[in-house]
Amino acid sequence: MGAGLLTALLATGSAMIVTPFANARFAPVDPARPDGAQIAVLRGDPATGPSDMLMRMRRGEGRLHVHSADYRLVVVSGTMRHWTTGGSATAPDLGPGSYWFQPGDAAHADSCLSDECVMFIQWSGPRDGRLAPETGSGQ
Asked: With helix as H, strand as E and coil as C, how does the chain read?
């Protein structure tokens, strides 16, 4: 394979990537909260465009928030819940292999019901996040 072809494959994201879980390099989502959620980028650049990542978080309930880009998530380990402004009471428990698609700019929240949850996430654009406006739902 010529250097030009390899450079082109890497630029388009077409090169094969294999990452054993033990080699995933997790870093805090928020450096000010090193014990909070962590991500390990597997492909792409979450700041600028599409990307794939692993995320792990400890037991706890999240707050309603939004992201600009759509994402697809598969639970790898642990048990989670994912819900919209209606609250978590009716959200199903989601174990390993469970999937959800989250449209961008739609308020949602997540909780980890296990000691630790690990997820695979595929972002369609840059990864960002902000708290959702208050909805009066108590969430």
From this structure: CCHHHHHHHHHHCCCCCCCCHHHCCCEECCCCCCCCCEEEEEEECCCCCCEEEEEEEEEEECCCEECCCCEEEEEEECCEEEECCCCCCCCCCECCCCEEEECCCCCEEEEEEEEEEEEEEEECCCCCCEECCCCCCCC
